[in-house]
Amino acid sequence: MMKRHAFKFACSRMGFADFNCFLVDFETGSCLTSRNSDSKGLLRHQMNASAQRMCSTSCAKVPEDLPKDNPNEIVRLANLFVSSGVDKIRLTGGEPTIRKDIEDICLRLSNLNGLKTLAITTNGITLARKLPKLKECGLTSVNISLDTLVPAKFEFMTRRKGHQKVMESINAAIDLGYNPVKVNCVVMRGFNDDEICDFVELTRDKPINIRFIEFMPFDGNVWNVKKLVPYSEMLDRVVKWFPGLKRLQDHPTDTAKNFRVDEHAGVVSFITSMTEHFCAGCNRLRLLADGNFKVCLFGPSEVSLRDPLRQGANDHELREIIGSAVKRKKASHAGMFDIAKTANRPMIHIGG
Fold it and tell me: Which residues form the Radical SAM core domain (predicted)?
């Protein structure tokens, strides 16, 4: 049962799909809603954009009949968000680094007036050789997904070798001056929860931000509460091995609780979506690979931006669609058991 669970999770989370598009994630300080907008009504959000539906491993196959996106459409929509106040864009997937025009898209996005941060979330397989050029093209922040430090476990989850390449990508990012290099680790009981302190050890001498993520329910990942390792338990384990762990001051829109071990170069964070939600400060918006716009990771509600864009909608009309969707965003998402019962897309479609 554990094998089936872990493998389906890998397929869903890591986005090792076989079709060709791209996810975007938008961020800043608040939003068009009254509870977190500024006096000018600017979008204060991060934008997550799916840059690629394909991936560099062969975990699973996903239908290939979805329409491919156009880089000009990506840049136009991104510019629309940035001109409305968004100052951070994250490219996700699938796996964004295998897109042939990823450097050109990064260059065009990084030149948008008002954008402060251009980030990427990647599985790290091909990142090391592409990162120097991506940095030249304006990529300012890197998140690498890695759920195990054991090569055999990695190969089991992804159905290919590549653990060493991911580690090389982490080190390449450090050598290129990315600080911190964020490493996302979804913790699952019985699979990798015995590695929590090994991950923390990576922060001793390197500017790595290990981000432990509570296992979240999405379509296709066979979520089970018994596999969830809650934040409180993870924290207890870390404190026992690293008594010098101290809480840091979080930014109001942080989705993570941040800590540092005394004399360690890096940071340890916990993303507690299931046991201690952070909806009040969440400023994430997602543009999915098929052009749908999503205001909450766990909410099933979506609105198409691609269709009106291709039907000739002007910027004002698109802003109206976006604003209406953001205003409908709920104050908090449902509890984890209700989320598990709600139809939602796999993580490869939503983006990390």
Answer: 24-252
